[in-house]
Amino acid sequence: MEMENAKEIVKEKYSQIASQSKIQNETSCCGSTGCCSNVDYSIFSEKYDNLKGYNPDADLGLGCGIPTEFAQIKAGNVVLDLGSGAGNDCFVARALVGNTGKVIGIDFTEAMIEKARANAEKLGFNNVEFRYGDIEKMPVTANKADVVISNCVLNLVPDKEKAFSEIFRVLKPGGHLSVSDVVIKGELPEVIKQAAEMYAGCVSGAIRMPEYLNIIVDRGFVNTKVQKEKLITIPDEILLNYMNQQQLSDFKNSGTGIFSITVYAEKPVSGCGCGCNC
User: Fold this and answer.
1) Higher pLDDT, 7 or 86
2) CATH classification at residue 174
């Protein structure tokens, strides 16, 4: 799948999602209309109901973790949320930074930006901002954020090396990331990799876990660690949309696993983090 085609697929699907309710989104594989519809449960998302700052209007049921859970966000911090959607994680982060902090959400789907801004206006927040932009080229100055969070979004970015380079750029020295995402252990079948719906559904764009972690380290981050890991089981009726019974059996016996992980990593206080004194 070409990079620009992948981006357009994501933008189209998530524009549709922005007009749907959380219940509608949770009854598809990862919220995408036309993808795994009529499956009456959520595969990826976790419950936010008891979190301070949670706003149901901003929760579309699209995440695969709760990045703020381990993000060590403090009062007064500047937090950047990548792929902010309707603002769910931004509003939880805002409860942690308080009135003295700031939260900036970035999304490249105009409909999501509009929905998030409307939610912020209803809540009367003046320290939560939503910007239209591409994660591979963020509309954010260097050394801006204390913490970068993201929830089930970076797997949708075609150029993950560029995305993590951008995260490194916008973080302050000594700042850190805490991102929830989908990764693979093993190898996905080619029919899944090439399925547009499974890409927008957060699966076929996922890469192998060691590769994912190596990208973070190679961009200059230090103290990288997986904070949480959860096996994702995709029902047979979803997979059978893309493969026959024999292919499904081979896949299930291959040892390949789809996982939700939350990863932490720090930008060094000085230098690039690669040990080269640059």
Assistant:
1) 86
2) 3.40.50.150
